[in-house]
């Protein structure tokens, strides 16, 4: 019954703050967020801790969870061109003792401006192209950044996305403190799913968030509506820290 929600958690990283802590502030040696994206490279890996709550609206389903997520990039061939494969793998440990796991992929490329472009998603070995392709991460960042876009998958699901900078904020992690752009991301799909997230990006670290917090709502295949509140924070990466 939870397959839709599991997929949406992965999608949150396929579009793809924090308190306490001292330590250095990373962003090209300054205290303001970087303005240019480090292009993702094959071999880049990011690890996150997850926490949150799963609730079924009008049901007795209400579980807290913890977990881990890995986001990594590898090289692949798509329609005769060399592209990047964005790989997501995560495990959730629910308070009822159940363990849930998900693996997903997205096929990405870069356009002439340096924007990271999402070309297709891959689930269970099936490639689902996006028409048109959409921006997964912009090359240039500023306070004025706002992106509205719409796409349709080959399976007929339409998505409307909004990606807007709402401020800047320092995010404390186990790796240190990052100067980040604070993003409001909203996605509505014809499959009766909605995503509303705040995402913190440090562009010099590549196309991967430093922190994420949001709500995911979807109608699952049992006909019930479920909501996940999700929190994620970066714990380790092999990407050099500026």
Explain what the structure shows.
Helix content is 5%, strand content 60%. It is built from one helix and 13 strands, in the order αβββββββββββββ. The model is unreliable at 16-30 (pLDDT under 50). The chain starts with a helix and ends in a 5-residue tail after the last strand. The protein has one helix at 3-14, and strands spanning 25-26, 45-56, 62-78, 81-94, 99-110, 116-123, 126-137, 146-153, 158-173, 176-189, 193-201, 211-219, 225-237. It has 242 residues and is mainly beta. It has a single domain (3-237), classed as YmcC-like fold. Strands 2-3-4-5-6-7-8-9-10-11-12-13 form a twelve-stranded antiparallel β-barrel. The chain is globular.
Features:
242 residues, mainly beta, YmcC-like fold, twelve-stranded antiparallel barrel, 1 helix, 60% strand
């Amino acid at each position: 019954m939870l397959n839709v929600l599991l997929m949406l958690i992965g999608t949150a990283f396929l579009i793809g703050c924090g308190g306490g802590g001292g330590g250095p502030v990373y962003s090209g040696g300054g205290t303001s967020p970087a303005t240019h994206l480090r292009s993702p490279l094959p071999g880049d890996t990011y690890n996150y801790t997850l926490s949150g709550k799963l609730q079924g609206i009008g049901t007795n389903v209400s579980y807290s969870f913890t977990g881990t997520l890995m986001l990594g990039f590898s090289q692949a061939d798509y329609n005769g061109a060399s592209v990047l494969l964005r790989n997501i793998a995560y495990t959730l440990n629910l308070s009822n003792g159940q363990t849930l796991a998900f693996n997903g992929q997205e096929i990405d490329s870069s356009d002439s401006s340096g924007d990271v472009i999402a070309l297709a998603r891959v689930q269970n070995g099936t490639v689902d192209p996006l028409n048109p392709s959409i921006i997964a991460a912009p090359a240039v960042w500023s306070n004025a950044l706002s992106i509205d876009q719409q796409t349709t998958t080959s399976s007929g699901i339409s998505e409307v996305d909004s990606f807007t900078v709402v401020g800047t904020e320092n995010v404390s992690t186990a790796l240190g403190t990052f100067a980040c752009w604070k993003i409001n991301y909203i996605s509505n799909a014809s499959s009766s799913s909605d995503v509303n997230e705040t995402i913190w990006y440090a562009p010099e670290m590549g196309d991967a968030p430093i922190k994420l917090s949001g709500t995911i709502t979807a109608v699952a295949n049992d006909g019930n509506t479920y909501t996940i509140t999700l929190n994620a924070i970066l714990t380790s990466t092999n990407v050099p820290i500026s």
